Amino acid sequence: MVKSGLMPSPTQRHVLSALVQNVPGVLAHISGMLASRGFNIDSLAVGETENPVLSRMTFVVVGDNRVLEQVRKQLEKIVTVVKVIDVSASDYVERDLLLVKVQAPSGPRRAEIRELVDIFRGRIVDVGPEELMIEISGRENKVQAFIERVRPYGITELVRTGRVAMVRSDSSAAAVGQNSRVIA
């Protein structure tokens, strides 16, 4: 018997977008609140929005619908949170960004790496005598696949952003009214 009214669901990744007041301490407050209640943040990206007094936090939490509901309830209690949307309940676009330095001495290995970059629609953003710095953006699985393809060449350094996501324009009006969870 499910008391919350939600049907049991398998554990899944939920992409949440929180519009928050752009004031010091908001990130620490929200991430601390989630951690203190045992919710793990799988991915986190924060940045200013089109309105400089607001920031958008996009984060991924793992769990069933009960976990999602608990996260939502906890976020409702935070004064600096303006609105929260469960982006993953709608049709959305998501992206991760990767910068990676790969060992690439001049010659055939460098050419092979350049071909991989083209296949993955990436860009070489810096060229050194023995390394290339590559930028890849896309869905998490694309970024992960690229990492696995260049790993044999020797990754010197790697940095990734957290996931960012937006509900698609043609479905946003319907999503806000039907599928997504909005906290005002």
Characterization of this structure:
The protein folds into two domains: 12-91 and 173-177, ACT domain (Alpha-Beta Plaits, 2-Layer Sandwich); 94-164, 2-Layer Sandwich (Alpha-Beta Plaits). With 184 residues, it is of the alpha+beta class. It contains five helices and nine strands. Strands 5, 6, 7, 8 and 9 form a five-stranded antiparallel beta sheet that branches. Strands 2-3-1-4 form a four-stranded antiparallel beta sheet, covered by helices on one side. The protein starts with 11 loop residues before the first strand and ends in a 7-residue tail after the last helix. Residues 1-9 and 172-184 have low confidence and may be disordered. This is Acetolactate synthase small subunit.
